Amino acid sequence: MNLSKKLARRTFLRGLGTSIALPFLEAMVPAWAATSALKSPCRMAFLYVPNGIIMEAWTPQTEGPAAELPGTLPRILEPLAPYREHLLLLSGLSLKNGDALGDGPGDHARAGASYLTAAHPKKTFGADIQAGVSVDQIAAQRIGGQTQFASLELSCEDGLLGGNCDNGYSCAYSNSISWRTPSTPMPAEISPRALFERLFGGADASETPQRRARQRLYEKSILDFVLEDTQRLKGTLGPTDRRKMDEYLYAVRDIEKRIEKAERSNTRTLPTVVQPPSGIPESFKEHSELMFDLLAVAFQADLTRIATLMLGLEQSTRSYPEIGISEAHHGLTHHLGNKEKIEKVTQINCFHARQFAYFLGKLNSIKDGDGTLLDHSMIVYGSGLSDGNRHLHHNLPVLMAGRGCGTIRPGRHVTYPEDTPMANLYVAMLDRMGVQVESMADSNGELGYLEGI
Length: 453
Description:
By secondary structure, the protein is α/β, with parallel strands linked by helices. The chain has helices at 107-114, 135-143, 172-175, 192-200, 209-216, 227-234, 239-265, 284-300, 329-333, 339-365, 422-432, and strands at 12-15, 18-21, 43-48, 87-94, 152-155, 164-166, 169-170, 179-181, 184-185, 306-310, 367-368, 371-372, 377-382, 398-401, 412-421.
C-alpha cells in the first residue's frame, strides 16, 4: 500500500464473507486538510424503559433553565453520578397524544407508539395500525445514506407477533418505538448474535439458526477471516492509529466471545417449554451490556449514527432475579400506594439506570476525533409514562446524555413550562443532526435552553 495515500473514511477490513468497518483514524485525514476535516459526526440514540418511573426518586429539587444538577443526585439517578457533567435532565415535557383522547384504556400501547412519533395511535388490533413517523426515522430518511446502516432498532425483550396486547391496541404498538411510516413500525432486533452478524457479516442468511450454530462450533473468530488484511493495513499506520485499531478489534472480539459464551450456556436443558433463542443471555444485565457494546462499536465505526434500544416492552412481565425481585415489573407498577411495591419498582428503575451508566462509560472511553463518542452524541433515556400506576403521559422522565458535538451544555436540570411538547425536543435534536424540519406532530417550536441560558 502506498504510504503517501491516505485512507478513505469508508475503509473496510475484508475477508471470506466478512467486512469490518474501521473507526476514525488519523490516516483518514489528508495532511493538507483543515482542522474542520477532523470534525466528528453527531450520533443520536433513544433508550426506552417501560412502565414509567417512580418520579419522586427521579426528580431533583433544583429547577429552572440554569439550575445545575445537585451534588447529590436523586436515588434513581445516583448510578449516573460519575457522568453528571454529561447529563441534561429535562422536566416538564409531555406527550398529550399518549392520552386517551376519547379512546379509553390502552395507555401502555399509546406510551410506546407515541414516544418517538408524538402521534396519537389509532385504536385497533387489526392490520390498519396507524401512528406517525418517528424522529429517528425522519433523521434516517434524510441522512441515513451517509452510513452503511441508516439506523439500528434494538430491544432486550421479545414481543408477541400480533393480536390484541392492550385493551384493543395491536401488539405492534408495544413492540417498537421506531416507525418508518405511520403504518410501518420497524422490527427491533433482540439477538446479539444476529446483530453481530448483521454488522460484520460472516453468516449465510439462508441457513437455519440451528445449522449456523453447529457450524460456528468449528469456525474461527470473525477476525481470523480478515487477519491478512489487518496485518497489511497496520503496517501502513502510525503508532496512534495502530493502538486505536487494536483497541477497536479487541472490543469486537470481546463481544464475539461473550456471545459465544451465552450460546454455550443456552444449550443446556432448561425447565421451560420454550428454549431461549441462540445468542441471547438469560441474564438481563449480560444481554443489555452486549447490546450496548454492539451499539457503541456501530457508532465507533460509523456504521450508523441513529439508533433506538428498548430495555423492555410496555406491560413487561420481566422479573429481575439479579436484584432479588421475582415479581413481574408491570404488576409492581400498579402499586396503589403500597410502599413495598413502590420500593421494588424503584429498585428496578435504579437497575436500569446502572445499565445506562454502563453504556455512558463505554461511550466516554472511546476516543473520537477531538473528544469522545459521548461528546459527539445525543443519547435520550426515558419512558412514555411518568407515573406507571396512574398511567400519566405528562412531565415525563427525560434524560439526555452527551454534548451533541458541542451544541448542548449538560450538567443541568432544565424545567420547562407544564405540558411542553416532547416533539419540541425532537425538532431541536433533528436540527443538530443536520435535518431541518418546520414542525413534527404537535410541536410548537424548537426546545430552548439546551445550549444554556
